[in-house]
Amino acid sequence: MSTGSTGARPRPVLAPAYGATITSLLDASAARFCDRVALVDGNERITYTELRDRSLRAAAGLRRLGVRPGDRVAVWMPNRAEWAIAFFAAVRAGAVVVPVNTGLRTAEAEYQIGQSGASLVITVAEHRSRDLAADALEIARQLPGTPSVVTVDQPVDGAIAWSALIEMASPEDTADLPTIDPDNPVIVLYTSGTTGLPKGAVHTHRFLPTLLDAVVRLRLGPDDVVVLYLPLFHVYALLAGLVLMTAVGARIVLMPRFDAAESLALMAAEHATVVYGVPTTYIDQLDHPGIASADLSHVRVCVTPFSRDLADRIRARFGPCVNCFGMTETASMAFLPTLDDPPDVALDTVGTPLTGLGARIVDEATGEVLPAGSTGLLQLRGPLVTIGYHDKPEETARALGADGWFRTGDIASIDDAGRLRFVGRSGDHFKVGGEIVDPVEVETALQSYPGVARAAVVGVPDERLGRVGHAWVLPRPGVEMDVAILLQHASSLLARYKVPRAVAVVDELPTTPSGKIQKFRLLEAMTATPADVGGGPDQSPIGPPGKAR
Fold this sequence. Notes:
Layout: H1 22-33, E1 37-41, E2 44-47, H2 48-64, E3 72-76, H3 81-92, E4 96-99, H4 106-116, E5 118-123, H5 132-142, E6 148-151, E7 160-161, H6 162-168, E8 185-191, E9 199-204, H7 208-211, H8 213-218, E10 225-228, H9 235-248, E11 251-254, H10 260-269, E12 274-276, H11 279-287, E13 301-303, H12 308-317, E14 321-322, E15 325-327, E16 332-336, H13 343-346, E17 352-353, E18 358-362, E19 375-381, E20 388-389, H14 393-400, E21 406-414, E22 420-425, E23 430-432, E24 435-437, H15 439-447, E25 452-462, E26 466-475, H16 483-493, E27 502-505, H17 519-526
Parallel strand pairs: 1-11, 3-4, 3-5, 5-6, 6-7, 10-11, 12-13, 13-14, 26-27
Antiparallel strand pairs: 1-2, 8-9, 9-20, 15-16, 16-17, 18-19, 19-21, 21-22, 23-24, 25-26
Helix pairs in contact: 1-2, 1-9, 2-3, 2-6, 4-5, 11-12
């Protein structure tokens, strides 16, 4: 842990008792916690012994299907017991797991499955009135090598049933599974890229010792219970949720999707002790009528990136809470307070780096390392950080550099005690209800509509979701833009959370001499009066928010 921003070498990490790999971590938990419940999925309760045995059998089935060490296996389904079993099985088979967001459109999922080089897709036939299996089969037909598709919920023509995969393997096959090296890649998690196309952040098992420092800070143990409504295809739920809670023998209650009323009821029924959420989920729970009667007396800590006003609301109803910082490239949590920290530390900062993670602040212009208390760009280094972006050497070089320090893109300061405070982002990315949106990707989708000459997208404040997309579009000459049809076009290409909530059709976009759109002027104009921008609406180079003309 760095005690300032000087980039000093982080203190060494002691070998944990949980094992050096995700596989050995599950083995250790099965040996220690045996018949304790590991997973709850509806009426099904799976013990730690059963979780290990079922993942072993599934791993042998994957081997029978031809999955070999280093192969990529995509998991494209909502939270359910088979998600966790498939994850541990693929890891045990030596494969690299590629979680895929169930909210992605087919073209978006095709890019991630194809770019990762996945040879197998594990999915479901039914999810929220959508047939993911049909989409997966169509994607497989479009990709080189035609990846196999496995369905876990019901048989589908052209796909392999999960039950058939399990039956392929005999108990003897489990003895033939490979030895897992901690330095081997284990997960590829996709995040947005500045080119508008997502990047797959690759992690080896080496993140485990650092992440496990969160066990000490949050005092996690086998008596803990978490209701996991955050999706397992996200780094937070997968690593800070499934993996971290498995390490300590906690009970993980799975929800296929978030619902405020159902989540509160499950938290009460299962005596949840730890709450993982994003601001949107907390806001929906706090605003639900059922919050008044929900029994949350067993909750001992809530974790999420909070604003202080939201944190105070959560403390008043749920109980103690701590802020945190993490990202796809840092295997979820990277900075975390302790439960002993006072509110001004636990809520107004994100705490200190987890043990083994180096942190420093550098000057944005010169790259010079700055002293404690200075504001600049945050850089991180250590085994918690991605080893690079899959098959993207240029992006990897820009993000990591020759010195191994990861450029987060965040503007922050670190005080003398090593505590991090955020100032903002150096880039344009924004989060919608916890989902990262790359404006370039959205702009590309809008500009693919025949009548759009150019588009600009920014994140603007939203009370419930944190931020939402706001777009400005410049029509081609002579085109009368229909905003509703334009948004339908965007919705056909983008996940719902990426689609702008408002569109302004403008006659001109403010640009630099080199032609780059000046987004700060768009934001300034959102609150400016017509006189502030040089005349009435028809003369303004920047249209008012949401107005189509």
